[in-house]
Amino acid sequence: MALTLTVPPKVTPRAFERLAEINEGADAPKALRVAVEGGGCSGFQYEIKLDDPAEDDLVLENQGQKVVVDSVSLPFLADAVIDFSEELIGARFTIENPNATSSCGCGTSFSM
Asked: Residue 58 contacts by C-beta under 8 Å, 6 or more apart in sequence?
């Protein structure tokens, strides 16, 4: 059986900075959890929420902030870029995923 190496996602400094702003003054800072679930209009959808790290999570850390990805979602997010975007229509965490073959207009659903 061949061993497949998965390139972990990258998190931009801007995403870590925004997470630091969110956690500022919190008694117990939370990690930003990025997960992939079945569903959405294209087959898969991203779930992005504040959470505590779990035992099997990949933990990406910078500036004292943590972004976590569970082991099931990790292959779907290989080499993806997690960023924070502020636009006229709103501000949100975004994922640029080279593994997605298509995505829908909402930006949270994709197919592979």
From this structure: 8, 68, 69, 70, 71, 74
Q: Are 19 and 88 in contact (CB under 8 A)?
A: no
Q: How far is CA 14 from CA 26, 87, 92, in A?
A: 20, 14, 11
Q: What is the pLDDT of residues 19-38, one digit of tens each?
A: 999 999 888 899 999 998 87
> Do the beta carbons of residue 93 and residue 18 sit within 8 Å?
yes
Q: Indicate the SS3 state at residue 23.
A: helix
Q: What is the pLDDT of residue 3?
A: 44
Q: Tell me the pLDDT of the chain averaged across its residues.
A: 85
* Residues pairing with 38 in the sheet: 44
CATH architecture of 10-105: Sandwich (2.60)
Tokens at residue 10, please? 């990258």
Considering only CA atoms, give the Rg of the chain.
14
